[in-house]
Design goal:
The structure is a single chain. With 176 residues, this protein is mostly beta strands. It has a single domain, classed as Electron Transport, Fmn-binding Protein, Chain A (Pnp Oxidase, Chain A, Roll), CATH 2.30.110.10. The longest helix is centred in the first third of the chain and has 8 residues.
């Protein structure tokens, strides 16, 4: 798989008040922190190596055809390998996988690999996993990339998902 170079980005206005119309970045982040999301790990295989990043900006786009989208920041570990036609896996983490969520949120994740030595880079013990092929990539005004992909395969487990809301990992309450 060809590696896409990381685009350098220096924002001399970081921390300055917004000059464009719209809500201030800190208010927007605070509002979005109230949105609960399943924690996912997006992973790509490059030969024997697996590159992965924790993502909460994941969403289904369509059931027929099966399409999903994921938003990746410019520094996400997987960005250099995300080209049209590339294959990647999205693993929905289980409640007991908080450590993996934190590890792959780091720029330089360290620890034993939760991925198989070959095949799709799916996190072992994930609640569910999707194996996807990139169809389209859109760059955003803020430097993120929105990757739209077709789901080629899906795997489903039995555990409850790990959630992220209000800047903390959460678990689902049992239904009464």
């Amino acid at each position: 798989m060809a590696r896409r170079p990381i685009e350098p980005r220096i924002d001399p206005h970081r921390g300055d008040p917004p000059t464009r119309p719209g809500v201030a970045a800190d208010v927007f982040r605070e509002a979005l922190s109230r949105w609960a999301s399943t924690v996912t790990v997006v992973a790509v295989r490059d030969g024997d190596a697996v590159h992965a990043t924790t993502v909460t900006s994941f969403f289904p786009v369509s059931a027929d055809p099966p399409l999903v989208a994921v938003a990746l920041g410019p520094g996400a570990q997987v960005v250099p390998w995300m080209d049209v036609g590339a294959t990647f896996a999205v693993s929905f983490l289980a409640e007991g996988q908080r450590g993996l969520a934190s590890r792959f949120a780091d720029s330089f994740p360290v620890g034993p690999s939760p991925f198989p030595t070959e095949g799709a880079p799916v996190v072992e013990g994930a609640v569910a996993a999707l194996i996807c092929t990139v169809r389209e990539i859109q760059s955003t005004e803020g430097g993120a990339r929105v990757v739209v992909a077709r789901v080629e395969d899906a795997r489903v487990g039995d555990d409850s998902p790990l959630l992220y809301q209000a800047r903390s990992y959460r678990r689902m309450a049992p239904q009464e």
